[in-house]
């Protein structure tokens, strides 16, 4: 007979699941926008639209990540199945921590790049405009951080999605259902 935890795995609270999947949608839409918007040969209207979307969604992602961290501190993650080895638990914790950190670095470096470069953040200027003075060297540094951090975030996303798929499709051990469905 299956134990109660096997029959009904512990799940993240609804708010955590909602914040997770909102973050997923926004991150997975900003990555291609960011990669496409810097390609040569794009029409100016398309490029402007992609830049507008990308730079104004970054702060939304930052807010969602901060909210997720606060919710996680107030309502810890449900326990992992006992079937996970210690290295699997450490890997999961490392990937989650690095995802949070890299998302914050990406958002902050993007905001700094835009503001230090003297560009507008159309939606956000009334709230955070002028927080960073115009500085070409700071803009270049933030641009480099943002550029290299994209490789880290993409690798972490592949690791996270791969592990989720393994747990949901192959192991079927309840790990995936802790975060699914979104609400």
UniProtKB/TrEMBL annotation:
Membrane topology category: Multi-pass membrane protein
Task: List this protein's GO terms for biological process.
Answer: respiratory electron transport chain
Q: Signal peptide location in the record?
A: none
UniProt-listed Pfam families: Ni_hydr_CYTB (PF01292)
Q: Which residues form a coiled coil?
A: none
The cofactor(s) it depends on are: heme b
The UniProt keyword set, sorted, is: Cell membrane, Electron transport, Heme, Iron, Membrane, Metal-binding, Transmembrane, Transmembrane helix, Transport
Q: Which GO terms describe its cellular component?
A: plasma membrane
Its localization reads: Cell membrane
**Where is it mainly found?**
membrane
Q: Which SUPFAM superfamilies match?
A: Transmembrane di-heme cytochromes
Membrane-crossing residue ranges in chain numbering: 18-37, 57-74, 95-116, 148-170
Provide the Cytochrome b561 bacterial/Ni-hydrogenase domain boundaries: 11-181
Example GO molecular function: electron transfer activity
The family this protein is said to belong to: Belongs to the cytochrome b561 family.
The protein's name is Cytochrome B561
């Amino acid at each position: 007979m299956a134990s109660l935890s096997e029959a009904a795995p512990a799940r993240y609270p609804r708010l955590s699941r909602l914040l997770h999947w909102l973050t997923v949608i926004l991150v997975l839409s900003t990555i291609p926008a960011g990669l496409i918007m810097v390609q040569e040969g794009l029409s100016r209207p398309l490029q402007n639209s992609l830049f507008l979307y990308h730079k104004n969604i970054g702060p939304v992602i930052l807010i969602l990540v901060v909210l997720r961290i606060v919710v996680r501190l107030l309502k810890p993650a449900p326990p992992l199945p006992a079937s996970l080895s210690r290295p699997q638990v450490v890997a999961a914790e490392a990937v989650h921590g690095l995802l949070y950190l890299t998302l914050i670095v990406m958002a902050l470096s993007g905001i700094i790049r835009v503001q230090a470069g003297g560009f507008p953040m159309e939606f956000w200027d009334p709230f955070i405009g002028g927080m960073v003075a115009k500085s070409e060297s700071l803009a270049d540094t933030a641009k480099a951080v943002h550029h290299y951090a994209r490789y880290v975030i993409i690798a972490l996303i592949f690791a996270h999605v791969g592990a989720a798929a393994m747990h949901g499709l192959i192991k079927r051990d309840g790990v995936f259902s802790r975060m699914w469905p979104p609400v």
